[in-house]
Specification:
The protein is mostly helical. It has five helices and no strands.
């Protein structure tokens, strides 16, 4: 997608800057908001995968973008479902660590990805 670049000093006095190519569906794209908060290249690579693992675990279908939208809606409508699902997911990850499928330190990385997603979309803390 090509964007026009306007240098502010090149503007005539009567020109107005408008956002380019902003689609209405982008205003409420949970995955885009989540991705915006990711800075480091390794974090950008890993966090979406870790978030997807949670969404797959709780049986939210679709591609990553649709899963993120569904998860946000589901958390809004059923915060208790989310809390119970989170506990079950981390119990499952602890069991994987006990079997040496993953390192125990990996579990906190799942938590960080999920917490970031929640923090980007909700004002009131849902998880600590």
């Amino acid at each position: 997608m090509a964007h026009d670049i306007i240098i502010v000093s090149d503007l005539e006095s009567n020109q107005v800057l408008h956002p380019h190519h902003v689609k209405e569906e982008d205003y409420d794209d949970p995955l885009q908001h989540f991705s915006y908060a990711l800075r480091a290249p390794e974090t950008k690579r890993q966090y979406p995968k870790r978030l997807k693992m949670f969404m797959d675990y709780v049986l939210i279908g679709g591609d990553l973008k649709q899963q993120a939208k569904t998860l946000k809606e589901k958390i809004q409508k059923e915060p208790e479902w989310f809390k119970v699902s989170l506990i079950r997911f981390f119990e499952y990850q602890k069991e994987r660590a006990r079997k040496n499928d993953i390192a125990f330190s990996t579990i906190s990385n799942y938590y960080k990805a999920i917490k970031l997603f929640v923090d980007m979309h909700f004002d009131a803390p849902i998880i600590n």
